[in-house]
């Protein structure tokens, strides 16, 4: 670890010390190399498709669906995404039922 040094602002020292260690020296890499055999789950499927599950309260579902389903249809057309909403009594595994 390198010693902290004062910040220099407009050619003058502010007297505020900063840590000079590069940020990556204390953080784990974002992605492991392929040969490392990653154990993390990914949100990708076949052909590079991405899957994302978003939990929303049931009272907000109407805003996503829209009047007559117009909003959800528009979202799907504009983004190319497939949007699925679960039934009101279906809960995501591991979630509490308050």
From TrEMBL:
Alphabetized UniProt keyword annotations: RNA-binding
Family matches, as Pfam families: KH_1 (PF00013)
Region (Disordered): 1-45
RNA-binding is among the record's keywords: yes
InterPro entries, per database record: KH_dom_type_1 (IPR004088), KH_dom_type_1_sf (IPR036612)
Gene3D superfamilies, alphabetized: K Homology domain, type 1
GO MF terms, alphabetically ordered: RNA binding
UniProt-listed SUPFAM superfamilies: Eukaryotic type KH-domain (KH-domain type I)
Domain K Homology: 53-88
Protein name: K Homology domain-containing protein
UniProt source species: Amazona collaria
């Amino acid at each position: 670890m390198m010693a902290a040094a004062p910040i220099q602002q407009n050619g003058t020292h502010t007297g505020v010390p900063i840590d000079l260690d590069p940020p990556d020296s204390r953080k784990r890499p974002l992605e492991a190399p392929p040969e490392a055999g990653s154990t993390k789950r990914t949100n990708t499927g076949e052909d590079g498709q991405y899957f994302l599950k978003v939990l929303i309260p049931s009272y907000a579902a109407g805003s996503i669906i829209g009047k007559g389903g117009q909003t959800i249809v528009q979202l799907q057309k504009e983004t190319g995404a497939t949007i699925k909403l679960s039934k009101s009594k279906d809960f995501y595994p591991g979630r509490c039922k308050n």
